[in-house]
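Notes from hallway chat w/ T.B., transcribed later so I don't forget. T.B. wanted the structure written out for a chain they're using in a teaching module, and asked if we could keep both sequence and structure tokens in one place. Agreed to drop them here.
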Amino acid sequence: MPFPSLPAGIAGMILLWRRRDRIKPAALAGLICILLLYLVSILCATNVEYLPRRTNGLIQLTYSITIGYALFLTVTQGTRQQIGRLFLTFAVVILIGCLLEAYAGLRPVSDAVHSVLYSRGLYENDLRDVLFYNRVRPSSSRRSRPA
């Protein structure tokens, strides 16, 4: 399981715990049904060789859906101005990070971090990035690249 999954899962559980009084039984049942549907789909797949990869994907999808639901419960309590400031801050932080990586010489630092976090293989979308953008895009989910 990739490293980012653990902190993401913990963050999702904390958000859900903080909003546990706002979780409706029908919504929880729907969430569980969706996750069970995904579980059945990976168990019914014919090629068993990909089961570990599918299981990893299911875990990440479960974290994503859980965090999304928890974020929804949290965001619906804020005002329009609070939510606007929150998402503007996220966008500015991501933009600054991308600009620093692309133009301020932080790509080697980013690559070193990614090589430690994602030491299992190459990021398979670098070729796509070069074909579409004529360069490798900054990305927080990029795995290490060959030197």
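Follow-up for T.B.: Residues 140-147 have pLDDT under 50 and may be disordered. Might be a good example for the class.
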